[in-house]
Design goal:
113 residues; 5% strand; two-stranded antiparallel ribbon; mainly alpha; elongated
Length: 113
């Protein structure tokens, strides 16, 4: 069992961590990289405009790791129109440029089944 002192220290640590995290977000600094850089709660807070496919809220473009993942999984997104794919590819290329990721000029072709 935790003592009263330990509980108080844990409470202070949590408050400090929340404060530091909020300050980083306000400054536009990326979250610290851990096992999962984008929790489900954090993903819900991201505006739709920060996703490759904003209607579906698929493929977040919040950091270099997510942009690389969006490129790799671009053809796996289902139930989107060609116009949405073209717009998503534009958003992915813009985000890739922002994070210094090289992308080929053409978007990946759709897989044939």
């Amino acid at each position: 069992m935790a003592t009263t002192r330990q509980k108080a220290a844990a409470s202070r640590n949590i408050k400090k961590a929340v404060s530091v995290s909020a300050a980083r977000r306000r400054k536009g600094i990326a979250p610290k990289q851990g096992k999962h850089p984008l929790s489900s709660h954090a993903e819900r807070e991201i505006p739709s405009t920060r996703f490759a496919f904003p209607k579906e809220r698929k493929e977040p473009l919040t950091d270099a790791r997510h942009v690389r993942n969006a490129i790799a999984r671009f053809n796996q997104v289902e139930d989107v129109s060609d116009a949405e794919r073209r717009a998503a590819w534009r958003r992915i290329k813009t985000a890739a440029k922002k994070y210094g990721i090289e992308v080929s000029i053409n978007r990946p072709r759709a897989r044939t089944r």
